[in-house]
Structures are given as C-alpha cells and as structure tokens.
C-alpha cells in the first residue's frame, strides 16, 4: 500500500465521520425545533450534505471507476428528488396551519392564497 | 462557430423515425445507456450493446414530444454552480447548527422572493438548488409570477430575511448561467427588485 492509497483511505474515513456528524446534528435539530417547517430545515442537512460526505468518503475508499460512477449517480438522483419530497411536506404543513404555536413574524403567502380563494368564489 | 455551438439545444441531435411522431433523441439514448451500464456495474461490450438496444426500445415505446425546454449545458457555468453550491452547503450548515443550539424561542417568517427568470426550467432548477442547501425550505412556487416562497428561521434578526432573498437571487443567476439559454441569462442579469415590500 503506497502513500497515496493511505492518504485516500484516511480522507475517506474523515469524510465518513463528518457525514455521520451531519446526520447526528440533523437528528438533534429535529428534536429541538418545535414545528414541522423548522424541522424541515434540520432534516435537509443529513439528506444533502450528509449523504454527499458519506458517499464521497465511500468513493475514496473504493477507488474503482465504475463504483465511483454508481455513487455519482446516487448523488445526482438524491439531489434531484429530495427537494420534491421536502417541498410537498412543507407545502402540506403550511396549508394545514402547522406553522408553530408562536406564529409567523411575517407571512407573504397567506394574503396571496386568500386572494385566490376569493377570486374562485 | 463556437458561439453557434454554445447556444445549441441538445434536442437538435434528435431525428424523426418514419412519418409518425416517434423521435429518437440521441442525448437521451446516451444518458439511458450510461445509467444501464452503471446499474450493472461492469463496463463491457455486451452491456453497452444491450443498453443501447434497451434505450432505443424505450424511446420508441414511450415517445416523448420533441420539445425544446430551453436546456443548455454550459460546462464552465455548471462548474461555478457546483463550487458555489458546495460552499453554500457548508456555510449554511454551520448557520443551521448555530440555530439548533441557540437558546430561546425565535420567530420564523414566510418570505416571497420574486425571481427575474421566466422559463419553467429555470424556475424549477432554482427551486431545487435552493432546497438542497440546508436552511433553504421552499414552501410554495407560484408559476404565473415566478415567485418562490421561503421559510426563514430566526426572522427576528432584521438582516436574516434580506440575506435569504439575496442568496436566492445569487443562486438564480448561477443556475441561469449553467443551464439557461442566452435569453435566460439576460433576464437573470437584470437588477434585483429593490425594497422589502411584499407584492
């Protein structure tokens, strides 16, 4: 095992650790934030940066062309699909009024939605 | 010559089969073949040929209309977008971590951000890029006015709302420079709407 392989292994291990740390922070955020919309901020952390760090770490340890390609494919689809899911959760949470007990400091969306309802009537 | 090449749609590499509306789209076939090979996990001639056959069969069995959705691939722009996205993911992650451990209650806000681009693809790509960054949560997208509605944590801090809006506009410009047509880039280069009044 030469020095380059050793360095790649070490970097991969560090990235795996950082990715796990991101996921842990995301979970702590889920527990500490009070409402759905705030929690979705914390929940995107493990899903994007955490996954990216873990997969890059795995790629550095595997170091095989085709495996790296498959991992890149996973990252690509993860980045393309996770916003759709989080958007739908946020959208339904907002429309069912789960914006937290303290309410919003400012809400630009509510007047627009009520406008639309009036126009439809 | 290079300019002509740069603003060419990937759809110009597609051609019609027969008289019907079946269109063989070469970039799509190449992309499907690449996924096929990656999923099998070995690069061999058999996999390559099988992949091409499957991709062509799929394109013929489920014909898609040859629509130019306005996608252009600009390598330099994509590189800049990727670098900025990585930087933004790390810096926003630190910010969200700070908010997780900040004590005391806070007020959140829902903020409208009017975009300058008009095409559907740019609107979608910007929304996807914004939601991939920790701390960016898109609640609603209004297509008619090209407006994103963001959920902002910690809106008690007066600079927070403005910085969230600036971040979206910066992302919009980078996305247009990576994937947009010349027209999209011109739209995205216009000055941002000033003032903090909701529409």
From TrEMBL, chain A:
The keyword Protein biosynthesis does not apply. Keywords: Membrane, Transmembrane, Transmembrane helix. InterPro entries: PhaG_MnhG_YufB (IPR005133). Residues 97-121 are annotated as: Disordered. PROSITE patterns: PROKAR_LIPOPROTEIN. Pfam families: PhaG_MnhG_YufB (PF03334). The keyword Transmembrane applies. The chain crosses the membrane at residues 12-31, 68-90. It comes from the Bacteria. Belongs to the CPA3 antiporters (TC 2.A.63) subunit G family. This is Monovalent cation/H(+) antiporter subunit G. It comes from Streptomyces plicatus. The lineage of its organism: Bacteria, Bacillati, Actinomycetota, Actinomycetes, Kitasatosporales.
């Amino acid at each position: 095992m030469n020095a380059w392989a050793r360095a790649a292994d070490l970097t991969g291990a560090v990235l795996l650790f950082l990715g796990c740390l991101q996921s842990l922070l995301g979970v702590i955020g889920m527990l500490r934030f009070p409402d759905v919309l705030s929690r979705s901020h914390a929940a995107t952390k493990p899903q994007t940066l955490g996954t990216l760090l873990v997969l890059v770490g795995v790629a550095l340890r595997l170091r095989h062309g085709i495996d790296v390609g498959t991992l890149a494919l996973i990252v690509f689809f993860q980045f393309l699909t996770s916003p759709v899911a989080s958007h739908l959760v946020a959208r339904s949470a907002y429309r069912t009024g789960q914006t937290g007990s303290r309410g919003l400091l400012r809400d630009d969306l509510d007047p627009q939605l009520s406008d639309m309802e009036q126009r439809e009537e | 010559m290079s300019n002509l090449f740069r603003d060419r749609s990937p759809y110009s590499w597609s051609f019609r089969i027969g008289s019907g509306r079946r269109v063989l789209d070469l970039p799509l076939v190449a992309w499907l073949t690449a996924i096929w090979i990656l999923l099998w996990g070995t690069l061999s001639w058999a996999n390559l040929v099988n992949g091409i056959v499957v991709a062509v069969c799929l394109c013929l069995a489920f014909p898609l209309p040859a629509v130019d959705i306005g996608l252009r691939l600009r390598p330099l722009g994509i590189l800049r977008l990727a670098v900025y996205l990585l930087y933004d993911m790390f810096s926003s992650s630190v910010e969200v971590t700070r908010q997780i451990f900040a004590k005391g209650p806070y007020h959140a806000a829902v903020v409208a951000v009017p975009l300058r681009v008009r095409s559907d693809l740019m609107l979608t790509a910007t929304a996807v890029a914004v939601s991939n960054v920790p701390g960016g949560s898109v609640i609603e997208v209004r297509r008619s006015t090209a407006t994103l509605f963001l959920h902002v944590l910690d809106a008690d801090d007066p600079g927070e709302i403005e910085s969230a809006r600036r971040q979206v506009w910066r992302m919009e410009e980078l996305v247009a420079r990576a994937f947009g047509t010349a027209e999209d880039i011109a739209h995205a280069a216009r000055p941002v709407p000033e003032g903090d009044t909701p529409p």
